Structures are given as structure tokens and as C-alpha cells.
From TrEMBL:
Belongs to the class-III pyridine nucleotide-disulfide oxidoreductase family. Keywords: FAD, Flavoprotein, Oxidoreductase, Redox-active center. Gene3D superfamilies: FAD/NAD(P)-binding domain (3.50.50.60). It comes from Sulfobacillus acidophilus. It holds the Pfam family Pyr_redox_dim. GO terms for molecular function: oxidoreductase activity. Residues 3-307 form the FAD/NAD(P)-binding domain. This is CoA-disulfide reductase. Its cofactor is FAD.
């Protein structure tokens, strides 16, 4: 009987463990989980803190008993300290116990990522939080209950920052979002970012862009956040959510040379350069399907897929990771904002001749009550007509997430913008139009490009 050890119990780790067991029921699978929360939805933390998900236990994708009933041995509060590839052993330590060695035949590293902690003086003091783990969320929840803050300041206007602005406004706090870039949500074009900023303002969120936070200090009973060029604001609670970085020290100390942004290089089977060791999830480089090269794209959807591939191959399979397109969506108050594929600057760097064209229409027939405007930005290659990417903004009931998925599927199959018009999409007046919004946007892109005008 072979022995598979999986380090990590989040998206990549649980997917690897479960799929390995499905692929080969005879394999002995041990999953090492650094905390007490295997297979919990970290993406759901803002909705727990908003109160929309009242019980944190509901964030569990599976109960511990369900994981164990699949034949997986789960060791909670157990950290991997070192990997010895030569002896096929991992040194581990369970909380309150002495370190020990366990042997593996195959190993999957799914150590994930941790929040970037910027070098801001005062970032470690009481009332300043990061948000990435269950324990992080408990710390914020406890502070909200015990200190009853009235004001919150969020450093970082990415996905988590905007979700937390929504969450804290939901709880009645006055919220300020501070972003170093020129517009909020820098993963989409500034043309959409400025509209998102107005949407935040309309919902009572103050926004400060182009600000580099340089210091956090106590000022009486408040926390004073200051930065350049001339920013200063007092608050009661600070969240620092400026991105994540891969947890790869364990892999590096085992002899692996790290790659982009310190992530673990893997091939498309999720194998590392060390024999019998695979890696997956937010700790690894990700093959980008459009670029045809590795990048760093820490996404839960990607981690699940990579973990599945790693788990299957660790027990004798021959799976391959098809690649990521960076497809993402976020809900901010009553809007949803999504993207997939490449933006102009990314496409230029990859050698394309991109043109981005914007189009606004209704999400369904305007004569049926409840129609909402939907803005679509399509990026395509001027020379070949190939679809390169798409961005979308609209009411969250306008099926933004599913419509961006249409573009993601088209990108997966390397379709042209024109071919998007040929796809047989569904239609009924309460839900769409005979030509769906994605197809109307594609047709508009073709007309603009043929006319030689810009977007």
C-alpha cells in the first residue's frame, strides 16, 4: 500500500487528498493541517464578518467527519517543519507534542499563501488586522464585539478590500478605503475602477486613491493612519489587505529553487523538480493558458483544479493542468465586477496587438421589468480577431458571473471575437435578448475595429 502525505488542508490540499483516494482507494492518505479548520471557505470570511453568514461553521465545505469517512487521516494543528527528499520523510509537529518524522511515498505541497505585510510602522499593534485565515476572522469578529468600533479604514482596494468595505458598511461602520493605485480594483481597467469608486461613494464608503500609507499610530483612543502625499485619518479599526505571497519556505529548504514572486515552479502535471513531490494551489506558479507560460495567480478555483491534478498523478495518474485565464468576479454592494483573460498592457507584453472596446446594454429585454445596465469591455487582437480578454460590470442579478464565464469558455477554446456571435446561447425576455449582451458587445467590437476607430 502506497503512502501519500498532503501538506495543507485548504483548496489544493483537500482536492489532492480526496481525488487521490477516489483514483486509488488503496492509497493511505494523510493530510497535515496547520490549524483546526480543514476545508473551510476563506473566500467566505467577509460574509461571516458582515453577519450575512451568521455561524462560521457554515463556511466548512465538509465536516471533519466527512473527510475522514472518505478514508483520509487528518492531523489537525500539525505543522510540517522540514522535508527530506532523500529519505522521503517530513518532520512534523502537532501542537503540544514533540516533533516527529513521518514517511511518504509521494508528497503534495499545498501550503497556500499568506497576506503581504507591508513595511508600515505600527502595522502590528492592537486594532490592526490582516484577513486570510479563520483565526484572522475570529480576531476581527472579537474586536468588533468587544470594542464596538464606529470607523474602519481598509488599506488595499482589491477584491478582499472591497468585499470588506461592503461587509463593514453592512454592520453600520463608517468605512474608508485607501488604495495606492490611481483607481480602486486595479485588476480591471481604470475606466471601470472610477465607476466602482462612485458606487462605493454612493454606498457611504470614502475612497482615497493614489495614497501610500506610511504610518499607523495611536492618537488618543483612535488609530491615526497617515501617508503620502498628504493623507491623514483617524479610525477605530484598520484592515491591511494588499495581496498575498506564496508560502514556499518549506519547499525552498527542501532544495527547490523558487520562481515568480517566490512561488514553487511546477510542470503541468503539478510535479516539482524533486522526485515524488508535487505542489498545487496558492504556493505555486500557475500555467497561463493564453500566455503559454507560468505566472502567479492565487485563486481558489485554480487551487482546486491543480490539487485534483496533483492528487491523481501522485497515485499513478496522467492528468495535466489545462491552465488558468485569471477568471474572477467580486460582488460589491449590488454590483458584480468580473474579468477574464488579458488586459491591454498584459496583451502587449505577450506580443499581441490588442484593442479594447466598451459597450453598454441591458441585461435582458428592457420592456420586461427589472432590467439593469450591463457594461462589457472586450479585448481582442486587431490583426487576427482573436479574443484576448473581457471585463464586465453590472447589477449582481444581471448574471455577470455567468456571462464572464461565456468569455472564459471562448478563451479556453482560442476563439475569435467573431466566433462568439455563432454560439447558441439561451433567450427569454426576463433573462436576456435574442442576441445576448456578450454577443452584442462582440458585434460592437467588430464594428469598431473594422471602422478603424478606437474603443
Amino acid at each position: 500500500m502506497s503512502n501519500l502525505v498532503v501538506i495543507g488542508g485548504s483548496d489544493a490540499g483537500i482536492s489532492a487528498a480526496l481525488h487521490a483516494k477516489e483514483w486509488d482507494p488503496s492509497v493511505e492518505v494523510t493530510m497535515l493541517v496547520a490549524d483546526a479548520y480543514p476545508n473551510y471557505s476563506i473566500c467566505g470570511l467577509p460574509f461571516y464578518l458582515s453577519g450575512e453568514v451568521p455561524d462560521w461553521h457554515q463556511l466548512a465545505h465538509r465536516r471533519l467527519s466527512e473527510i475522514e469517512s472518505a478514508g483520509i487521516r487528518v492531523r489537525l494543528n500539525t505543522r510540517a517543519l522540514a522535508i527530506d527528499p532523500a529519505s522521503h520523510t517530513v518532520q512534523v509537529q502537532t501542537e503540544g507534542q514533540a516533533p516527529e518524522m513521518i514517511r511518504y511515498d509521494k508528497l503534495v505541497i499545498g501550503t497556500g499563501a499568506v497576506p503581504i505585510q507591508p513595511p508600515i510602522p505600527g502595522v502590528d499593534q492592537l486594532g490592526v488586522f490582516r484577513l486570510h485565515s479563520m483565526d484572522d476572522s475570529f480576531g476581527v469578529a472579537k474586536y468588533l464585539d468587544t470594542h464596538q468600533p464606529h470607523r474602519a479604514l481598509i488599506i488595499g482596494a482589491g477584491y478582499i478590500g472591497l468585499e470588506m468595505a461592503d461587509a463593514l458598511r453592512h454592520r453600520g461602520l463608517a468605512v474608508t478605503v485607501v488604495e495606492q493605485a490611481a483607481a480602486v480594483l486595479p485588476t480591471v481597467d481604470p475606466a471601470l475602477g472610477v465607476r466602482i469608486e462612485k458606487h462605493l461613494l454612493d454606498h457611504g464608503v470614502a475612497v482615497e486613491t493614489g495614497v501610500r500609507v506610511e504610518r499607523i499610530r495611536h492618537a488618543g483612543d483612535s488609530l491615526r493612519v497617515s501617508g503620502s502625499p498628504t493623507f491623514s485619518k483617524d479610525t477605530d479599526l484598520v484592515l491591511v489587505v494588499v495581496g498575498v505571497q506564496p508560502v514556499a519556505d518549506l519547499a525552498r529548504s527542501a532544495g527547490l529553487t523558487l520562481g515568480i514572486k517566490g512561488a514553487i515552479p511546477v510542470d503541468r502535471t503539478m510535479a516539482t523538480a524533486l522526485p515524488d513531490i508535487y505542489a498545487a494551489g496558492d504556493c505555486v506558479e500557475t500555467y497561463h493558458r493564453l500566455l503559454g507560460a507560468p505566472t502567479y495567480l492565487p485563486l481558489g478555483t485554480t487551487a482546486h483544479k491543480q490539487g485534483r491534478v496533483a492528487g491523481e498523478n501522485a497515485v499513478g495518474g496522467d492528468a495535466s493542468f489545462a491552465g488558468s485565464l485569471g477568471t474572477q468576479v467580486v460582488k460589491v454592494f449590488d454590483w458584480a465586477i468580473a474579468r477574464t483573460g488579458l488586459r491591454d498592457h498584459e496583451a502587449v507584453a505577450a506580443g499581441y496587438q490588442p484593442q479594447t472596446v466598451e459597450f453598454t446594454t441591458w441585461d435582458h429585454k428592457a420592456y420586461y421589468p427589472g432590467a439593469h445596465e450591463l457594461t462589457v469591455r472586450i479585448t481582442g487582437d486587431r490583426d487576427t480577431g482573436r479574443l484576448l480578454g473581457a471585463q464586465m460590470l453590472g447589477h449582481w442579478r444581471a448574471a455577470v458571473a455567468k456571462r464572464i464565464d461565456v468569455f472564459a469558455m471562448a478563451l479556453y477554446h482560442q476563439m475569435t471575437v467573431a466566433q462568439c456571435l455563432e454560439v447558441d446561447l439561451s433567450y427569454t425576455p426576463p433573462l436576456g435578448s435574442p442576441w445576448d449582451a456578450v454577443q452584442m458587445a462582440a458585434d460592437h467590437w467588430l464594428r469598431v475595429v473594422r471602422s478603424g476607430h478606437g474603443g
